[in-house]
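Hi W.,

Here's what went into the run:
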Amino acid sequence: MNRRSFLQGLAAALAAGSLQLVRAQQGFKPFPPAPTLGTPLQPIGVRAASEAHVVRYISNTLPSRHTGAAFAPIGELDGIITPNGLHFERDHAGVPTIDPKDYRLVLHGLVERPLMFTLDDLMRLPSENQVYFIECAGNGQNGYREPPEPTLTATRSRGLVSGAEWTGVPLRILLEEAGVKPEGRWLLAEGADAAAWVRSIPTEKGLRDVLVAYKQNGEALRPEQGYPVRLVVPGWEGSIQVKWLRRILVAGEPAMSRGETSEYTDVRADGRIDAFTWVMEPQSIITRPSGGQRIEPGFHQIRGLAWSGFGMVARVEVSTDGGASWREARLTGPVLPYALTRFVFDWNWGGEETVLMSRMVDDQGNVQPTRAEFLERWARNNRYHYNAIQAWRVGADGRVQNGDPALAVGAAPPVQAGGCGGEVFDG
Amino acid sequence: MNRRSFLQGLAAALAAGSLQLVRAQQGFKPFPPAPTLGTPLQPIGVRAASEAHVVRYISNTLPSRHTGAAFAPIGELDGIITPNGLHFERDHAGVPTIDPKDYRLVLHGLVERPLMFTLDDLMRLPSENQVYFIECAGNGQNGYREPPEPTLTATRSRGLVSGAEWTGVPLRILLEEAGVKPEGRWLLAEGADAAAWVRSIPTEKGLRDVLVAYKQNGEALRPEQGYPVRLVVPGWEGSIQVKWLRRILVAGEPAMSRGETSEYTDVRADGRIDAFTWVMEPQSIITRPSGGQRIEPGFHQIRGLAWSGFGMVARVEVSTDGGASWREARLTGPVLPYALTRFVFDWNWGGEETVLMSRMVDDQGNVQPTRAEFLERWARNNRYHYNAIQAWRVGADGRVQNGDPALAVGAAPPVQAGGCGGEVFDG
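Here's what came out:
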């Protein structure tokens, strides 16, 4: 209960006297209580006006805001739950307005009994509640840029991921009620947006753990998250978690839709194309301190997010010396499968220029690659599933910038505007 | 994968053909995709207009909305996380507006080194993320009413509770840094609202698990939740989790403040008064179906919330026959200490009038009492810590009403308007 025991409780690297907590040893006063009555009770609480800067990032290079992405401001957030208004968003034709009274979900095709469900039908059925991340396959797309862009922020690096508690009926229950015929090995899920977005899901996954979700952190889905009903497909890329779900056609073959041919396929270094790359690979990113922030010398708790579509986070390691040495970070808060996981790491910054990095290992043994390892495997015109280690350079002035190594492999080709990455690259 | 296996997967009580899922076996069509581009990307997502009715309940009998409560609409929510805008609110003098740049937290009194922290100071320190419920001591106050009010809803019965992931620095770290003197057995926490709300917390609890919290579900606290900083005191009554925290005075004795003498004390049946009744007792409530809702015959998944300030939910049991028989409900989603826990129970309603109830047991063996057991212990003019079983009567017409038994012990005295319960009772 004294200064010594406090310091011992922090990282061993902490130097005595570095905490700078004490702003005045005497003569200070608390700031005063409010002199008058404050704001009265409201039916819905609103955010503090002084937090108005904490919004999602939307690139100003988008030709249209009907297709593109809004990035969750992960550089400003803590914990593993993303507030519903700040959950990342990726649309292909804007957000449709659906009257829940008109809503119907049709389940047809290779089934014994075609079914149609109202929203009330779905809500009466057995439900599950699960905390899952959803991540756009294009998350990390800025990492393909060569040389790395110095002004990258955590939000623009990996903000196409969010975490929420989802409530819905297991798709398994609907499929079993309809009676899927043995040849019905694929589920073609279609959205009610103007893009009529279609993705193909193996029936096996649909029977395993997919949710037909209607609640997000307790309340109805937000319109941009698929109101009134979306699929939640744990661990898999966001674009397969079809929003505004209007039907599921059980079929013998995948749809080979636009969203799984011209988009959301991956180009290997040797030019071959991988389709149906559903699972989101192990990721981690330090969110504090991160690009665009500025820190002062002294104690900092480094914080970040880790997740893996293969399962649960097993371990996160942090380097504060540009990768020369690594130490294990502490996981804080719930550690759940297919969910964002928060890691923290005590650090005492002496004011020298350095590079911070995190890397993670999931419970299946998958390891997050370095940027060099990653780019060796994938073509320079690939756009998806970038999960390399993100480095942050802390300057002697405390300014934090992108610290990714330039690989001197030539300029990347321009990336199409309006994709998941949501930004136009010039190379 | 056929109808039989689906039905077998549900409760044994399910009668074949009762699901009423199939609205048309042929000739149906999905509703159409949007004919035009939808709403473009926005910096912050907003709720669907068709969900505008899902707001917090504020009694229209309050003399002033500066003191009173807004109830979380638990009858409409799922899961264990409450969206920040719908988290319940209890104020004593309205919500102060605090500029985070001006904010200071002072820690003084019986300490070796008085300390003052800016918001940045607090955020640099080690943080924890925990999912906790917060519950007003006045939650359930409507249950004291005799005879029970027929139109009670789940929201008005137990909506002064919410769940969130809180991020903050453990108070232990600040106390250890300040060096609490051996005689400093109490922490007097004071808010910066116009009420200058004060509560006394044993230093032992402060060293154990109290958070000095600045984030709620990832983002900055909402103003009505204490922006920029509040205490989160796991399992203890809400009024001790001081919002807009301006100082902690370490003292040898409790403050005996208004909030722990004239309010937030409990009157026993024999007239003796219990003060410092901090821990929130085991609670559970069925939220679906619940008072004010109407159901149709057939399958329903009964859903509800359970929690206990003593620890974790161990077991929830549900009765669908007015308490004659009880069966164990299933817990779905994360089951965490001091957190809301969601239970579900498959039920096939044949259309007969009946009464639904839930009761819970926590991992310390504490059992939620019946209304008769509860009211035997506490005086009729008690106002706090009501945690008796809530019964819902389902009429033959499917309408759900308060099913609490009238105990014929005479009318309760009027409860003061503007208390936690937020409503005026006429007896």
